[in-house]
Write a structure and sequence with these properties.
Helix content is about 20%, strand content about 35%. With about 180 residues, the chain is an alpha+beta fold. The chain has a single domain, classed as Immunoglobulin-like. It starts with a helix and ends with a strand.
């Protein structure tokens, strides 16, 4: 009898933990895609911003700055990335992620429905399927944000790239700049 009670309590405890840690559909629906953030578009061998040129920068050519993101002095920056490609999975990779104390990524499907959340201190890349979007919330490392606070004219430039086989070689890289 005691064995049955113990097993029953363990099952109840596990079920309780599962329901506490899995987001409910109500929680998922409260997370919405913020279209007001600076946005980086990616497609067949290019990065761009809305209305900007879709030019690839293969290795051996100088990549161009496509976006300046303000607010680095606050210690946190936010921006969106959207895979506008026709039929190809892409990823975003950047040394910016290594200048972060924490990175949080909210992933949205092509209909802007919240799909998943990733959070951590060791993000190397984020894959995006066709039509998918990601909102990046990056808490900058202390030394990085202090540099912006000490000198308002400070800027930092980071490469963004896609390393799906052949994409980087095809020119899928660009620069983004952080400013105060």
């Amino acid at each position: 009898m005691n064995k049955r009670i113990t097993i029953g309590l363990m099952v109840a405890l596990l079920m309780g933990l599962l329901f506490m840690t899995w987001p409910t559909s109500a929680q998922q629906e409260t997370i919405t895609f913020n279209k007001d953030l600076p946005t980086i578009l990616m497609g067949e061998m290019w990065f761009a911003v809305p209305g900007g040129p879709k030019v690839p920068f293969p290795p051996g050519t100088a990549p161009q700055n496509i976006l300046t993101i303000a607010g680095a002095a606050s210690g946190e920056i936010r921006f969106n990335v959207s895979n506008e490609g026709a039929a190809v999975l892409h990823e975003i990779r950047s040394p910016l992620f290594m200048a972060a104390k924490e990175v949080k990524v909210l992933l949205f499907d092509p209909n802007d429905k919240f799909v998943a959340e990733f959070e951590g201190t060791d993000l190397l890349e984020q894959e995006l399927g066709v039509g998918y979007k990601a909102e990046f919330r990056i808490v900058l490392a202390g030394a990085v944000s202090k540099s912006f606070q000490k000198d308002p004219s400070t800027t930092m430039v980071f490469e963004i790239s896609c390393h799906v086989a052949g994409h980087y070689e095809g020119g899928m890289r660009a620069l983004i700049t952080l400013a105060q």
